[in-house]
Amino acid sequence: MTAHRLPDDDPLADADDVLPPEPVTIRGLLGRNLLRLRLDASASHEDIARAARSYDLEWSLSWLTSLERGHKPVSAEQLIALPLVLSDALGYRIGLTDLLYGDEPVQLTKEPGMRGDVPAARVREVLTATPYRRVFSGPEPRAGPQTNGSPLSRASEKMREISRAGLGDVDARALSRAEAGAGELEERLARRLAVSPIVVIAAAAGLWGHSLTEERAKRLATGVDQEVPQRLRTAVMRKLTTELTERLAEAETAANIALQEAAAARLAGERTQELPIVPGPARAPEGAPQLS
Questions:
Q1: Of 106, 125, 144, at which residue does a domain stop?
Q2: How many CA atoms lie within 13 A of 50 on its CB side?
Q3: Phi-psi category of 194—alpha, beta or left, where left has phi over 0 and alpha has psi -120 to 50?
Q4: Per residue in 215-242, is it b (16+ CB within 10 Å) or e — as a string?
Q5: For the chain, which end, N or C, has fewer CB atoms within 10 Å of the first or last residue's CB respectively?
């Protein structure tokens, strides 16, 4: 998947020298993403407070406003509760990585500094890491060189994921175009739907012949120097998400039916092989006396 590209009208797109992003605090990053997620879903502070009350959490509107502005620190309990509450309030799954999304370094100390700033991607990697299980019954395994595999093996794995999702009939040229035009929009939707990004890309390729990013830009196309209203952005994204979700559900249903039919055919073949061969009645030779 190619890296997310800057929009054509972005003033930084043609800049020769771009300053590195300023570090952001945890509360600032969390508040910014909380505001983004709420506005994208057209939800209110009251919607979030109402969802919090179902967990016996009294989150006031003023507290939520301060949280979005990065003025309020959160406790460990609140940090864990936020994705649960937001998932109920916004209507789709929210994870901690959604609340810590961004490209700026994360500032872990009170004062910004090179040693106290951690890349945001590293923070999200730690949050989603598989629990480490140390083996006590044997020697500690030696860590070998880690590789991402050859291009051929990565391509094969992508095709296996596409086939498992029931999208194996996608046109190869459309898939290649969609993968080239994909960006962070596909990554975010894949996390929401708990699927691999290549599955979202394949579904988009089957629907529109190009990526979700390109389809959204096409539907949001306006006149020169016209700003796209946030309400329109939200409506278009909801429509695109619905179309992709329905396509994935149809593909999954078709794949399950195919698996069931294959299993039934295999079982029928096994039963046929297991049937005993029953010999017919013996015929007496011609001319032999018949028993009465």
A1: 125
A2: 8
A3: left
A4: bbbeeeeeeeeeeeeeeeeeebbeebee
A5: C
pLDDT band at 13 (very low <50, low <70, confident <90, very high): very low
What pLDDT does residue 137 have? 46
Q: Are 235 and 275 in contact (CB under 8 A)?
A: no
Using the predicted structure, report yes or no on whether residue 141 has a pLDDT greater than 50. Answer: no
Domain coverage including residue 221: 152-266
Q: How does DSSP assign 73-117, residue by residue?
A: ---HHHHHHHHHHHHHHHSS---HHHHT--SSPEE-SSS--TTTE
Judgement on whether residues 164 and 117 belong to the same structural domain of the protein: no
For the record, the structure tokens of 93 come out as 């799954």
pLDDT of residue 12: 35
* 87 occurs within a structural domain: yes
pTM: 0.43
**Per-residue b/e over 107-141, b at no fewer than 16 CB within 10 Å?**
beeeeeeeeebeebeebbeeeeeeeeeeeeeeeee
One domain for residues 168 and 250 = yes
pLDDT in tens, 178-197: 988 888 888 888 888 888 89
Do both 160 and 261 map to the same domain?
yes
